[in-house]
Amino acid sequence: MSHSNSSARDEARIGRTPLVALDVDVPATVCAKVEWFNLPEAAHGGGSIKSRIAKGMLDGAEDRGDLTPGKTVIEPTSGNTGSELARLATARGYDVEIVMPDNASGGKIEAVRDTGAEIHFVDADKGYDAVIDRCEELVAADPETYYRPNQYENPDNPGAHEATTAPEIWDQTDGDVTHFVAGVGTGGTITGTGRGLHDRGDVTVVGFEPANPLHAVDGLKYLRTGEHYHPTTYDESVLDGKVYVDTGDAYDRARDLRERYADEDPRVVDPGQYDPEFVADNLRVEGEFVVGTSSGAGVRAAEQLHEKAGLTAEDTVVLVLCDRGDKYADIPLWDDYLSVEA
User: Fold this and answer.
1) Which has fewest Cβ within 10 Å: 97, 185, 197, 330?
2) Neighbours of 263 (CB within 10 A)
3) Where does residue 335 rank: exposed (0-12), middle (13-18), buried (19+ CB within 10 A)?
4) Could you tell me if residue 154 is inside a domain?
5) Sign of the torsion angle spanned by Cα atoms 167, 172, 178, 180
6) Residues 6 or more apart from 8 whose CB is under 8 A from it?
7) Cα separation values, 127 from 6, 135, 136, 186, 229, Å
C-alpha cells in the first residue's frame, strides 16, 4: 500500500528522540530518552515509546504481504500501542479496531477515538488477559477480515528497538552508556534495546516489573508469580538483572521529577532529530514537566539498581520516559500530581 506524503512525513518523526540528563539520587550520570517526541505534535500528549513498534510492525507486515489493502488492523492494548497503531494504520488507509480495558486513561482512549478507530472495551476487573482473549475471539470469528500485529509475539516489536533505540542510545552517549533500564510490558523495549546494546559494548541491561499483581503502573505487566501470559517478545536471557517497583514509588518519583524541574528544564544531552529550541518548547505541558507512571518507575528502578549493585560516578545509566503525564490526568491517583488539563 502506498502511503500519502503527509503520513510518510509524520512517520519520519518517529525515532531519533532527544536524550536528556535527569537529576536522580544516585552517583551515576542518569539520562533518559524522551519518547513523546515520537510524533511530538500528535494530539493527547504526542506519541510514545510504542510509536516505534507500531511503525515497525506495520512495515514488517506490509513487506511480508500479511497486511494488504482491505484488511482491518486489530490489537489488544492498555493504551499506547493502540493509539499509535490507530494513528499510523488509519493514515495508511486501513480500518482499525482496538480492544482495551474500560479503565484505560482518558487521554489514550481519546487518542484512539480521534483516528476514527473502533474501540471494544473489556471489563478491567477481569484482568488484562481478558482483553487478549476478547481480541482473539473477534479474530477467530472473522479471520479473513483482520490482521493482528500481536505486539506480544511479533519479533518486529523488539526488532524495532534493536534497529533504532539501541543505536540512538549508543551514539547519543558516545558509547559511554554502562546501564540500560526499562520496564516490562511486552518486553519489546528491554529485549530489543538490550540486544542492540550488548552487541555494541559492555552494557548492563536491567528490567523492572511491578512488585505486586494489583498495580497501577500503566503499561507494565506483572509476571513475578502465578499463571500469567508471558509474551514471547520478552527474552529474559537478555537481562543482566531485574528489580520490582511498587506503584506508590513510581508515582512518587514522577512527582519528584515534576517538582525538580518546576523552574528549569532537564539538560538536553542530544536533541535527536530536532533543533534545541523545538525540544525546549515541547518538554513541558502548560509549563509543567509531567511524565507517565512507567517513567517514574524507571527512576525508582535506577535507585534500586544502585541499592543492589552500587553505581559509581563513572557509570552512565539510560532510562526511558515513555510518555507524557497529561495522558493520565483523569486517573484519581493523579489528582495531587497534575494541575494541567488532559
Assistant:
1) 330
2) 7
3) exposed
4) no
5) negative
6) none
7) 38, 14, 15, 16, 11
pLDDT at 264 over 90: yes
Q: Amino acid letter at 323?
A: D
| Claim to verify: residue 236 and residue 328 sit in the same structural domain | yes
| Short-list 18, 46, 49, CA closest to 266 | 18
- Determine the Cα–Cα distance for residues 28 and 313; give it in Å rounded to an integer: 5
Q: Is 50 designated active site?
A: yes
Give the span between the Cα atoms of 223 and 22, in whole angstroms. 29
| Over residues 321-341, mean pLDDT | 68
Same domain, 214 and 302: yes
Output the DSSP codes for 262-296. Answer: SSSPPEEEE-TTS-HHHHHHHS-BTTB--B-HHHH
- Give the domain range for residue 323: 5-42+161-334
* Closest alpha carbon to 322 in 178, 165, 103: 165
Please write the tens of the pLDDT for every residue from 149-177.
Answer: 999 999 999 999 999 999 999 999 999 99
**Three-class DSSP category at 327:** helix
Catalytic residue among 33, 50, 108, 221: 50
**Domain final residue pick, 116, 147, 178:** 147
What does the block give as the cell for 211?
A: 512488585
Instruction: Look at residue 74 in the predicted model and tell me its pLDDT.
Output: 98
Q: Which CATH number belongs to the domain containing residue 92 in this structure?
A: 3.40.50.1100
Contact indicator for 24, 47 with CB cutoff of 8 Å:
no
